[in-house]
Amino acid sequence: MTENLLSDPSAERAVLSGVFNFGNDAYFDVSDIITEKTFTIGSNAVIYKCLKHLLESDVKSIDIPSIWSAASELNLNHVFDNRDEVKHLTAITKFPVQVENVRRFAAKIRKLEIARLLDAQLEDAKEKLGKINGDESISSIFGIAEDAIFDFSSLLGDGNDTPELLGSGIEEYVKYLEENPCQTMGISTGYPVYDQAIGGGLRRGTVNIIGARPKVGKTLLSDNIGMHIASEMNIPVLNLDTEMTADDHKHRSLAMLSEVAINDIETGAFGNNPDKKDKVYKAAEKIKDMPYYHRSIGGMAFEEQLSVIRRWLAKEVGINDDGTAKECVIIYDYLKLMTSDSISNSLAEFQVLGFMMTGLHNFALKYKVPVLSFIQLNRDGINRESTDAASGSDRIVWLCSNFTIFKRKSDEEIAEDGMGNGNRKLVPIVSRHGGGLDDGDYINMHMKGYCGKIEEGKTAFELRDNREESDEGFIVEDENDEVPFA
After folding, report:
1. Which terminus of the chain has a lower count of CB atoms within 10 Å, N or C?
2. What would the DSSP string read from start to end of 214-234?
3. Domain span at 111
4. What is the mean pLDDT of residues 401-424?
5. CB-based contacts of 439: which residues, under 8 Å, 6+ apart?
6. When comparing pLDDT for 195 and 310, which is higher?
7. For the whole prediction, is pTM greater than 0.70?
8. Looking at the 3D structure of the chain, how many domains does it have?
9. Among the three residues 62, 90, 120, which one is the final residue of a domain in this structure?
10. Residue 182 lies in a domain
11. What pLDDT, on the 0 to 100 scale, is given for residue 352?
12. Helices (H), 290-408
């Protein structure tokens, strides 16, 4: 074994040890940034290739014999004919490392790999510059350096950057669409009018944004959507929560399904009423079997948050052969800075939020997962219904598939729509895939505050065009006990 310049053997050992000892928890944390070519020591590259082969073959546990077996399957078993390499492998398996540090070490050796690639490109350019005799044009001399950087950039890609004809395979694609019809392009949120406005629900590889002012009910809305997807469609949902605990969500989820007051559930008072008790226990039975996951991410660095998602995809959802995730939904409640560490004199808060949105967007594209993210609206969101109300960064709106505002209805809107037609509204502002709504229109939503249930009603224009149907909307029996019509 020989050590190369621009290498860190200890970091390489840490990565290999992490993947060996923690399996998928570590592998899917690093597989997006490194390959076997990242390692500078030949046997390390072979070990990583064997680990990758095992984990992508759904091997549940890894030991040294399984690595030897993988090496044999990959025609690399000759590497371990050397006794020193066997000792090296054994030492790697015992190398101490924490799972949360594996990605940091992987990032380090990836940076060193990039530096080596760039060094090689510049050496080649230096050799070409050494052959210049002075008869060349200035532009051709500059071109030597430009070509080196261009070629270097291509080395960092996935090798699939060649443009293709838009019509390539178009007939086969049309045939596929004909033979595989679907009712909607995305996963339904449980709100049909909203789904249609944004282009058929939550589509794979998109970030869907809902903005709201504080205390309007965005967390309740996230739970209503998540519960519908997990319970009615049996699709795994991960709720990443920056503020509330798992117990808070349990109370609200039990209340939504049972329609027993959240306060009665939190205090245990439901046990004094046989009817409420029966409803709560039935709700608990339903929640127990649904694939609805919660993780508190308050105070967690953004890169660590993405690691949480990657591990969840690998362990609970599953990864397809092409590296994309199986069907699932990620709810991010909500996009904000966790600490002030990322803000400096050269990097403002809006820029950091923009980078976070870019990271979330790229993650959704890479794994082909739909992300529903909530954001806080600035004070413009009180009276204005436009993209200007998005707090933090223009990039949030640029990179999302659709942007919708969730807010309280004004007294005038409640009076105009009719007292029985909701106390909240969803206002789709922009949508890349859907038709949205006409200017001035909105979706009536009714939040039953006592149990946290939010239901969709008609749009404002539908109500105004069909006044005879307005009395069939929501019935408000009491301001603290709002219930929808049957």
Report:
1. C
2. TTSSHHHHHHHHHHHHHHHS-
3. 9-120
4. 92
5. none
6. 195
7. yes
8. 2
9. 120
10. no
11. 67
12. 302-312, 349-367, 380-383, 394-399
